[in-house]
Design goal:
With 155 residues, the chain is of the alpha+beta class. It has one domain: Electron Transport, Fmn-binding Protein, Chain A (Pnp Oxidase, Chain A, Roll), CATH 2.30.110. The protein is built from three helices and eight strands, in the order H-E-E-E-E-H-E-E-H-E-E. It has helices at 18-27, 65-72, 99-113; strands spanning 31-36, 42-47, 50-52, 55-61, 75-80, 87-96, 127-139, 150-153. Strands 1, 2, 3, 4, 5, 6, 7 and 8 form an eight-stranded antiparallel beta sheet that branches.
C-alpha cells in the first residue's frame, strides 16, 4: 500500500486468516452501519447484530432513516466496534420476512444480548430485519498496522 509503508505479505504478521475476521464479527457488540439515501446523503448509525451463517443479521425500526435508506439503496458498509482490530464489510442488505428465519434471528439476538424479546420485536409491520452479505471485507490488527492489512473478496 504506497504511502502507508505496508510491508509485503510474507513480512510482519502477514495476511490474516478469515477465521480472525469471523471471530471479531461474532463477538462485536455493536456494528456501525453506513447507508446512503436515494439522493446519496450518507448516514452512519450503530446497530446490534448477529454474525450467523456467513451473514450479519440486524433489524431497525421500519420508519428509521437506516431502513428507508436500505430500501432505496441496499448497498451499504458495516464495521465492527473495535478500532484496534476493525473488520469493515461492503455489500448488500436484503429484507428478511421468512418466519423461520426471523425466529432464528430472535434466538440469536436473545442469546447474544441477554434479552428476552418475543416475535413482536421482529414484526415486519414495526421493524425491518436485514441479512447483510459481504462482497468485500477488510481487516487489520493495529498492533501490526503495516504488516496485517487483509482484504477478502466474496463475489
Amino acid at each position: 500500500m504506497p504511502g502507508y509503508g505496508v510491508v509485503g505479505e510474507t513480512e510482519g504478521a502477514g495476511l490474516l486468516p478469515w477465521s480472525w475476521a469471523e471471530e471479531r464479527l461474532d463477538r462485536a457488540h455493536d456494528y456501525w452501519l453506513a447507508t446512503a439515501s436515494a439522493a446519496a446523503r450518507p448516514h452512519v448509525m450503530p446497530v446490534w447484530g448477529m454474525w450467523h451463517d456467513g451473514a450479519l443479521w440486524f433489524s431497525c425500526s421500519g420508519g428509521s432513516r437506516k431502513t428507508r435508506n436500505l430500501l432505496a439503496n441496499a448497498r451499504c458498509s458495516i464495521a465492527t466496534d473495535d478500532p484496534a482490530e476493525p473488520v469493515v464489510l461492503e455489500g448488500t442488505a436484503e429484507v428478511v420476512d421468512d418466519l423461520s428465519a426471523l425466529r432464528r434471528v430472535l434466538e440469536l439476538e436473545n442469546a447474544k444480548y441477554g434479552t428476552a424479546y418475543g416475535m413482536e420485536m421482529f414484526d415486519p409491520a414495526v421493524n425491518t430485519t436485514f441479512r447483510f452479505r459481504a462482497e468485500v471485507v477488510f481487516g487489520l490488527d493495529t498492533s501490526d498496522f503495516t504488516g496485517s492489512p487483509t482484504r477478502w473478496t466474496f463475489a
